Amino acid sequence: xxxxxxxxxxxxxxxxxxxxxxxxxxxxxxxxxxxxxxxxxxxxxxxxxxxxxxxxxxxxxxxxxxxxxxxxxxxxxxxxxxxxxxxxxxxxxxxxxxxxxxxxxxxxxxxxxxxxxxxxxxxxxxxxxxxxxxxxxxxxxxxxxxxxxxxxxxxxxxxxxxxxxxxxxxxxxxxxxxxxxxxxxxxxxxxxxxxxxxxxxxxxxxxxxxxxxxxxxxxxxxxxxxxxxxxxxxxxxxxxxxxxxxxxxxxxxxxxxxxxxxxxxxxxxxxxxxxxxxxxxxxxxxxxxxxxxxxxxxxxxxxxxxxxxxxxxxxxxxxxxxxxxxxxxxxxxxxxxxxxxxxxxxxxxxxxxxxxxxxxxxxxxxxxxxxxxxxxxxxxxxxxxxxxxxxxxxxxxxxxxxxxxxxxxxxxxxxxxxxxxxxxxxxxxxxxxxxxxxxxxxxxxxxxxxxxxxxxxxxxxxxxxxxxxxxxxxxxxxxxxxxxxxxxxxxxxxxxxxxxxxxxxxxxxxxxxxxxxxxxxxxxxxxxxxxxxxxxxxxxxxxxxxxxxxxxxxxxxxxxxxxxxxxxxxxxxxxxxxxxx
Length: 581
What we know:
By secondary structure, the protein is α+β, with helices and mostly antiparallel strands. The chain folds into three domains: 4-138, no CATH class; 180-347; 381-580, Jelly Rolls, CATH 2.60.120. It has nine helices and 27 strands. The protein has helices at residues 35-39, 64-77, 106-114, 163-167, 178-233, 240-288, 291-310, 333-336, 570-580, and strands at residues 25-26, 32-33, 45-47, 54-56, 95-97, 102-104, 123-125, 150-154, 159-162, 175-177, 323-326, 342-345, 351-355, 361-365, 381-383, 388-391, 409-411, 421-432, 442-448, 464-471, 478-484, 487-496, 504-513, 518-523, 528-533, 542-548, 554-561. Strands 13, 14, 15, 16, 18, 23, 24, 25 and 27 form a nine-stranded mixed β-sheet that branches. The chain has a six-stranded antiparallel β-sheet with strand order 17-26-19-20-21-22, with no helix packed on it. A hairpin with a 2-residue loop joins β21 (478-484) and β22. α2 crosses α6 (240-288), α5 (178-233) runs antiparallel to α6 and α6 (240-288) runs antiparallel to α7. The longest helix is centred in the middle third of the chain and has 56 residues, at 178-233. The chain is elongated and about 110 Å long.
């Protein structure tokens, strides 16, 4: 029984295969399933136990590669199960005939060698099969014309043929020698193997780097704690409590970054497994499979290798997982003692640790957002080389297939996450030419993507939070206003000069808290929270939006500030913490 466990097993039920049974069958992930799992009526889908992918039950091709592996494993571990297939008299098999694709007992082997028709056949001892696996590539014979070997391939019908098939049912089809067809497709497979090998090398490098990151985080923690100990040694008992708080902060940050590193490493391990398994299958295919067997699996293999080879490579950068301790000097100790020190990460889309009024720590994510040029409505706006959004169509700018047709702007390349507090900033240069009336000049914020292109603006979206500039009915001038859910408009009481040539630089920050369903809009210049929009519907996927309108009424330049481009000081952290409540 222990020996049988070394045989290839079904990836669904994990039972070892037994040679000379129907199957196994090839799943789209290039793993195999036994006939029992495929035909059971209890489930409509199959869960591959190797890669954890689920597939609806259908007609899968025979997995010739695994079938040959079962045979080779049986010759090593369970030779006694191999019986003569020539006369099927139950005798122990002693040898294998490549041309006949049959096991021969001692008596049949002698008779086989005496017969004129078979004496020149290549016969190999059973125990030598693992040394010469290529001998399993026997000459298959046609299912309809059993005396004729398969020597042609019909590219029109994509089926292997014998000479009789070519002269009868497929006389009008385009056929060629099967070896020629196989050599053509083998070149394609070899190219795919090269691509997969290159990707495997990159994945292995990423995995090694990710492992190093996990180890370096502990070293960084030790170094940061040493700086903390040195700093607080001079402050004695007065700062003992603060020292313990910062140690906890370091530990929590380490856990947070280590968890992210482990999750990325887990993703990389899965990608490595997929590429390795597919590459191994292709190598076995070239070694074990006869062309006719390959063509039965061709579509499955092509689809899988193409999907794995072209999947996006995870990005790993070591600087994303480092952090340092920022300390303040002992001057003005009485005023600064409550906020002495701070922990910062040095990474793209850096994270900041904040405390709310209840003393709880929150990880503030600073995502590296970018305006999506593929969704940009190039009929109305364009993005300059310095990443500034302005009104007007750029000369000879090509429209992307997925770009907006109605919305006068674009969205970010990625949506906001539903599990992190996030922050980004938008800068706007505004110079009005004339009174805009009730027309918008710009808007920015976030909303769900589904209905954003229903109109030229997004502020009417029922799942949105935006701020915009337009003529205010109350102040009779251009005001920046906020709106949520497509209604509930609030004037932020910052009336802008509405005379020609009166330019204004605006700078706003957005603090998005999906857990609480709130958005705080901040005037970055003054550090003042202008408005906090609450009761936002949670669980939705929000996308930052950027729109400029009516270029004949005003000049508007809009730029996005995110990731490491955002600077933090004590004052900014304090109003962020107050916005968290």
